[in-house]
Amino acid sequence: MATTTSINGTDFIVQIDKGAGYVTIATSTSASISMSLETRDTSSKSSAGWADALYGQRSWSIDVEGLLTFESSGTGNITELWSVYENRTVCTIKFIQATPVTGDSYWSGTALLTSLSADAPMEDSMTYSASFQGSGVLADTTN
Predict the structure, then answer these.
(1) Burial label, 78 (beta-carbon count in 10 A; 0-12, 13-18, 19+)
(2) What is the pTM of this model?
(3) Nearest one of 130, 133, 138 to 90, comparing CA atoms
(4) Structure confidence at residue 86 as a pLDDT band (50, 70, 90)
(5) Is the distance from CB of 93 to CB of 109 less than 8 angstroms?
(6) C-beta separation of 67 from 126 below 8 A
(7) Is the dihedral of CA 135, 30, 11, 77 positive or negative?
(8) Which terminus of the chain faces fewer neighbouring Cβ atoms within 10 Å, N or C?
C-alpha cells in the first residue's frame, strides 16, 4: 500500500547502474532531484503587448552529497563516481526509497555525471558531491 504520510528524506537514496546492476551511492547525506519545464516564446504583434508562451523541452537532474570513503569499486563511493567521471560512463540512475514500499513512486533515467567534487575541511569529515544531468526521459515508476 502506498505511503500516505510524510516520507522521511533519510529513506530516499540514489543508485547508479554502469551496466553491471544498480549500486547505491554510499555514505550519502543528502540527495535531490530537480525537474524543469522550459517555455518557448510565442509572442507576436497580435499579442497586444502581452507575452505568450507554449511549453518547450523538459529536463532533469539529480544531485548527491555524502561522506567520502575510498572503498573498493562496486560499493558506490567516490571510487565508483571517479570511474564514471574518468571513463565518461553513461549511467542509469534511480532516485528511490532504500526499502521500496509497494505503491510508492521512484524516478529513473539515463544520466551523465556532470560534476564531481571533494571537500577536505580542517578537523572535519571529508565530503563529496556529484551532479548528474538527465539525458532523455525521466520515468516515474511505481514499486
Answers:
(1) buried
(2) 0.88
(3) 133
(4) very high
(5) yes
(6) yes
(7) positive
(8) N
